[in-house]
Give the backbone structure.
Amino acid sequence: MWASCNVKFRDCLAISSVILRRCLSLGVTMAKSKFEYVRDFEADDTCLAHCWVVVRLDGRNFHRFSEKHNFEKPNDSRALHLMTKCAQTVMKELEDIVISYGQSDEYSFVFKRKSNWFKRRASKFMTHVASQFASSYVFYWRDYFEDQPLLYPPGFDGRVVVYPTNQTLKDYLSWRQADCHINNLYNTVFWALIQQSGLTPVQAQKRLQGTLAADKNEILFSEFNINYNNEPLMYRKGTVLIWQKVDEVMTKEAKVPAETGGQKMAVTRTRTKPVPFHCDIIGDAFWKEHPEILDEDS
Ligand code: DGT
Ligand code: MG
Ligand code: MG
């Protein structure tokens, strides 16, 4: 009786394994259906090997978004810190980003030369960065704008640019920081003329037409007693995010004999995090101080 039972059980196992194999082979046949050819219409967007891959995001119509959400002019530190929080989230959640740079409503993310993330497909890099950033912007909004409800969902466009040498990458980042400086100097004078001298936006624009940087510095100093060089670094230089080892102190329940009770003790552990700096990245000093960023195998 037991013997026949065992035989039947073995037969059942054998039959099920045959069915399983048939199902699997059917699955393979289905995957290679006559429709498979449509795959060939997909564009090959592999980023050139061994080049730096940069994804730049920019807020969609943030002129309107900043007005609707009462951003302070010309710089709203809540908005800039929120952008940086989103960029840190992108760096932590995605892979292979070695440095990021942000100003105004934009952030650039640099993927390491040797990254093979998603086989270096540009669309994957760009869409993952943009969606992670946008969802973080909404997710963390309340932490930065406590009294200001988010009135509609913000969007960000993205582009991918591939840079072949360290020099072209550094020039790219210098270009973005120079842009930050030019815009911020202009905006600082423009809004001082409106907010402090009572000019209309059109009058302020006319006043600044054709002026050079030195003229703008002079207006700020002589009319508003503002030394531009004393304006906050975050506004003048933007934000650079690089990986740094950070000591974290946390309290832990100590494992001690039960009779002494649950004692808490401070434990220090070292973690690597994307840390913000508001420094010059156009000169050589930054790159000499952080050679690991451009390291071939970084
Ligand atoms: P786009 O990028 O073509 O969709 O259009 P916009 O409007 O986003 O233009 P864009 O990116 O050239 O300029 C950024 C706008 O965002 C600009 O109008 C100023 C505004 N914005 C960015 N950060 C701040 C800030 O901290 N405070 C204020 N008040 N406005 C800001
Ligand atoms: Mg924009
Ligand atoms: Mg912009």
